[in-house]
C-alpha cells in the first residue's frame, strides 16, 4: 500500500504517517492539495494531511480543498504532540540568525520565543517545516534558521541551536486519513482515543433560526458534538457551511435520523466520514 503525506521528509505529517503506516511505502508531496489530488486520482491508496492545531486552529486549506475540490472520504484521524526545534546549518551555529523560515503555523506557535530571542530576524513562510529544514541544509552560505522537528534535524543534518521553542507545552496537531478505499483499508494505532462522524451541513437561506434547529436535531437525540465550525461557501458574502464532528460512529438510527430531519428542513447534509481516531507520542511516531 502507498501512503501519501505532506512532505518533504521530516514533517510532522510524516511522523503521523509513520505512526499509523510504518510498514507501508510512504510518499511525500510538496503541498496539501497535491497530496489530496494523489489519493483522489489513485496515485496512492491513502493520504494524510493536517486538519487542526491546538494553538492555531483549523488548517483552512485542508478543509476548503476537501470540500470544494477533492471530496475524498475521511477514514481515520490521528493526533500528534508538536515539539518545535530551532535548527541551523552546522557551519552556522555561532553566526547571527538573520532570517527564520518555516510553515506559518510553526512560526506562529513560537511567537513568544522569536520575539524574545530574535526580534529583528526576518520571517519567510514555506509549505512545511520539512521544506524549511531542507532549505537551510542546502544554503550554508545564508545566516538562516528553520523551525522544524527532531526528525527534520536528523534527516537534513542540522544543528539544534535551541530545543523546544514552542510557546505552549500542550500543543497538538490533528491529521485526517483520506482514502477512496474506505471499505478495504482498516486503520489501527497504538492508542485509540475516540470515534467520530464528520458532517458538512449547508443551511437554507430562507429559514430563520435554521442553525438552532440544526443543533436541536442533535441535542434531543443526546448526540454529543465535539466540534462545530463555519467556512464560507464561496458563493457570496455571508454564505457559510458548517463542519460538525459528532461523537461516535455512524449507526442505524440516531445519526441517519439527524440527516433525515435536517434534509426535511431544507438543509444540505453530506457525511464526510465516520472513523476511529488515535493519539501518538513522538517516540511511537518515530519508530
UniProtKB/TrEMBL annotation:
GO terms for biological process: L-phenylalanine biosynthetic process. Residues 2-180 form the Prephenate dehydratase domain. It holds the Pfam family PDT. GO terms for molecular function: prephenate dehydratase activity. The record marks 173 as: Essential for prephenate dehydratase activity. Its EC number is 4.2.1.51. The keyword Repressor does not apply. PANTHER family: PREPHENATE DEHYDRATASE P PROTEIN, PREPHENATE DEHYDRATASE-RELATED. This is Prephenate dehydratase.
